[in-house]
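Q: For a teaching handout, I want to show students what a protein-ligand complex looks like in token form. Below are the inputs, and the small molecule is adenosine-5'-triphosphate. Please produce the holo structure.
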Amino acid sequence: MPLTLKIAVTHLNSRRRQTLMSLLGVMLGVAFFMAVSSLMRGSEQDFIKRLVDSAPHITVSDEFRDAPVQPAVKRFPDGAVAISNVKPKTEVRGIRGYKQKMAYIEHIPGVRVAPVLSGQIILTYAGKEQGVLMNGVVPELMAGVSDIEEKIVAGNMQALSSSPNGVIIGRALAKKMNLEMGDNVTVSSPVGLVRTMKIVGLFETGATAIDEGQAYVLLKRAQVLLDRPDRANMLVMQLDDPYASREVAARIEKHIGYRSRSWQEASESLLSVLLVRNIIMYSVVSAILVVASFGIYNIISTVVMEKRRDIAILKSMGFTARDVRHIFLWEGTIIGLMGSVGGLTLGYGLIWALSTLRFQVPGVSVPIEMPVYWGLDQALIACAFAALSAMGAAYFPARKAGLVHPVDILRGQA
Amino acid sequence: MSSDGAVEVLRAEHVTRELTGEVPVTLVKNASLTINRGEFVSIMGPSGSGKSSLLYLLGLLDMPTSGRIWLDGEEVTTLTERQIARIRLEKLGFVFQFHFLLVEFTVLDNVMLPMTKLGRLPEKQQRERAEALLADLGMADQLRKRPDQLSGGQRQRVAIARALANDPLIILADEPTGNLDSKSSANVRDILSELVHVRNKTVLAVTHDPEFARAGDRQIHIVDGRIATDGMRPD
Ligand SMILES: Nc1ncnc2c1ncn2[C@@H]1O[C@H](COP(=O)(O)OP(=O)(O)OP(=O)(O)O)[C@@H](O)[C@H]1O
Ligand SMILES: [Mg+2]
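A: Here is the structure, written as tokens, with adenosine-5'-triphosphate included.
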């Protein structure tokens, strides 16, 4: 053990109460940092998981990001051509050649894709009419890109394949229209087709707009009802790694030309709220650690003041300014490290305690748990921050100690 | 080695120490002296005359504003802080009027500290040497005590043992008996005298005590920061 460390330990040991107080400061700082960070990160992950699980990670829609370039501009790219009041060519809505585009997407590893053709229809039953958004889907492919299957409370998605005239609607809508499983409902499409379809499933997502306003049918059936044979107007995707969505979306858009939106792009405003929340919370918990480092500064400054005599002795004995500085830097380091280790233990204890909490919310059957994040990264950040601020706090008094001139002390004594 | 067989250990030439400030003070004026091995030198003079200031300069605790100092043949006034610290560690031992011991360490630890810092001996031998030094000074049964459990005279003996830890060339003492009763004073005086006369050490001691000065071979009188007289003890 270096002599300077031994002296540092002796100093801390001989003023145990002060040492314990500053240790406690660091410990609480680290522990609170970890607990708050764990809750924030946990709830953020929980939130994103909900966002990511229920919605497609990437949606290719039948739009282009920019208005199509006019043929005349294409023809004379460098010319001073200004074109105005040109009505763009009417296009059949939908993704052209969606099967080839799907084939391209299917080749990207870790990406599952399903085609969707959606359009407004009107359901009529017992004199009641209701407009809904009809989604034409391929049930087998849909299972890979959305959790709608899990939300089905009666029947199942596969029933669409076995009974091509089937339709799945939200339970809320069924209740509103007095519909039950197996009932026949009249469907009118915007192109004037009228069909009778059978309720083969009910879903409940919890979002009223969806539960009352959407319906699922077979893709083929939707193409007939909307008179768009062989078209889809959306390709929806889920990825094994949802966080890669942005890059994959960009790659797909570049290749197939249609607008591809990642979930990040779609929920940009929500994510920026999360970012702001993170900045606020890290500032607050860092402040705790800064306060703790003031405690360390305080104790080491006090020790330096009280130990001026000892410093003079050590220097007259042959210790250099650097040796003396090291003694007090050791003291900061010891408090920082021990406080970190203690804080780590306390922090994980707090996180565990939070994770066992259960709240019963009226009207919700399952009790709510605190979503906590156990990751070691936040613990390491807290410890590194604590250890660094402890050493930083020790640095200034330590430097002052190194500059003590033994003669000043000896004269003061004589 | 000079012609009469004396070995020079310390030499100061025209050493002056001034304090700049609102009122400039001259602590030591143009002091020149040579100290040989085996000498017991007392520095005397009225209070405030600059005795301590001269001792700090000769002990390399303070730097002169002009003049040069040699220790063991090496000019020390041009060295860096680290080199000077090293010389203090290896070649000088200090004893002050008020015991300057580390209160949190035991008697034994205090004496071992300079040896540990120097790191020349393995720990076991450091301990043995510290025990032997303390035993020589009659402190064999106080090794585990802390300084605040000792009397003034005992503390001063621990300070002497610590000053001797690294077998220094010169022991510098500033009123080592100034704070002791007459019995303890006599004891400390005898110890220092024995170091010189039996073990051929060199001692340079500031003192107010004529009794103490009589134990020495040579007396230097300081008046107003100047060396007024420097000579062998008048018998
Ligand atoms: N920092 C300082 N600022 C101004 N004057 C000082 C300072 N330090 C010492 N002095 C003055 O320098 C002179 C010499 O002081 P020094 O301590 O060397 O005297 P001394 O002979 O050891 O006295 P004593 O016998 O009382 O210990 C004194 O007059 C003192 O007042
Ligand atoms: Mg003095």
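A: Two things your students might notice: The longest helix of chain A spans residues 16-54. Residues 154 and 278 of chain A are 41 Å apart (CA to CA).
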